[in-house]
Amino acid sequence: MKKKKKRWKIGWLVLVLLLAAVGAGLYLRTQKKDTQNRLPENMKIEEVTRGTIRITTEGNGSIEAADEHPVQAEYTLKIDTVKAENGDVVQEGDVLATVDEDSVKEQISLLESNLSELNSAISMSDRSGSSSLTSPISGRVKRIFAKEDDVLTDVVAEHGGVMELSADEKLKLEFTPSSSLKPGDSVTVSFLDYEEDGTVLSEQDGVCTVTIPDDSDYPVDTEATVTDADGNELGTGYLKSNHPYLVDSAYGIADEINVEAGDWVDSGSTLLTRRYYTYNGDYLELLENRDELMQKLQELRELEKKPEICAKGSGIVSELMLQDGVVAAEDTQMYKLISTDRFWLKTAIDELDIPGVREGQTAKVVFDAFDDEEYEGKVEKISALGENVGGVTKYTVTISVPGIEKLRTAMSATATIVIDEKDDVLLIPVDAVQTVDGERCVTVIRGEEQEVVPVTLGLVNNTQAEVTEGLSEGDQVAVLGKSDLEIMMDMMKQSRAQFAGGDGQND
């Protein structure tokens, strides 16, 4: 009999829960039809207002160094005592290590010997330069890169030379033929108002190279058409020098250009004249080397007076390679200096939110170590490579964070980024929105009456909802203290409690 009683109670429990669910739905439907009902005790009244709504996304991560500066040894010196450790925060000029004085004297002696040799080389060097830049070969001028008043070394750095000559009196054209060709085949090359007999020089990976004589003033970079003996078009390309010769210049400023593109020049012909040619390039290079050597000697003599290695700037010391009694070789790393002016925060953002994140956006950053403070960062980079974990793809967003005194690398932080925003829109609390018969509704209060009104929503966040249709500014709406689900769960809990009490009494 007792088992039957329990089954009877379980059946009643299911029935009551179903009635509770139906009752909650009927309550909202009744409100929609009957505007005279009173508000439940768990509701309060809010006004429809105008304002700004924002949709945000969040990501967590840890702080990394944004700027690291490796510092190399400028001379080969023996370290006496290391004063710094990895992780030390230093200012420019702080002592990181002391240097063995004898090793400094050895370096000074070596550089003085090098200086003596350099002085001798300078004294024997030919200082004279030439006001004329002459052609080193015979050939046709195809391109002129230099113009009057140009610094000739700058022109060479940009183009490889001040002029281009055709060194073998041939032009070439590269193209992809529409039919098979082999080296040695004869073709016709047409361009501008000219036609020339050409020869297939080579074929590689489907690209043919054809050469033609450069007997006349044929301009390079001209489009040309290649045809076979029957006049069938095989392809097109652009004329180039077959063997271009770039003319170098080690010094001077262009004064006058003496040739034009298309001119034939003989070896030794003047191509251009230049000013500031008093010293030739080799002599000037020796002088520059001497200036560098003198600078190093001056620095070493200062180091001899105060044999210390000091920080080259402000920041955090990392990857310190200096050791007591060990030689630090020239051009090897001594340490790295992490700048404290800026840090990176790399955080993972969900694939649903990443379309709203853009480079240059502002991000609000809060650190776990001091979560009552908020700092402003900026989105610097958005990775295009996603990582899928547990069925959710996320993308790494790099945020720059300005350096602050108490910030340290590897500190944890949370970044909040606005991914959508609207200004001057109608807003209601999100808890005012209910679902009745599958449509979004709110309960509007008008004096002693209430009415359930369908609404159309725009942006919705955790606290607010944008209303695009159905309400006006100043309307009074009812806000549920609890959501539909929370109300349902409370009713179910109360029903279970009643049944539990009944069991106790019957038992």
Question: How would you explain this protein's 3D organization?
Answer:
- The structure is a single chain.
- The chain is built from 5 helices and 34 strands.
- Among the domains are: about 60 residues; about 90 residues, Elongation Factor Tu (Ef-tu), domain 3 (Beta Barrel), CATH 2.40.30.170; about 60 residues, RNA polymerase II/Efflux pump adaptor protein, barrel-sandwich hybrid domain (OB fold (Dihydrolipoamide Acetyltransferase, E2P)).
- Helix content is about 20%, strand content about 45%.
- It is of the alpha+beta class.
- The N terminus and C terminus are likely disordered.
Task: Describe the structure in brief.
The chain is of the alpha+beta class and 507 residues long. Helix content is 22%, strand content 44%. Helix 1 runs antiparallel to helix 5 (484-506) and helix 2 runs antiparallel to helix 4.
Cross-sheet strand order for the largest sheet: 2-24-27-26-25-28
Report the biggest beta sheet as strand number plus sense, adding barrel if it closes.
Answer: 6 strands, antiparallel, barrel
Helical/strand content category: alpha+beta
- Tally of separate helices: 5
Shape: flat
Q: Tell me the Rg in angstroms.
A: 42 Å
Low-confidence stretches: 1-22, 24-37, 502-507
The termini sit apart by 12 Å
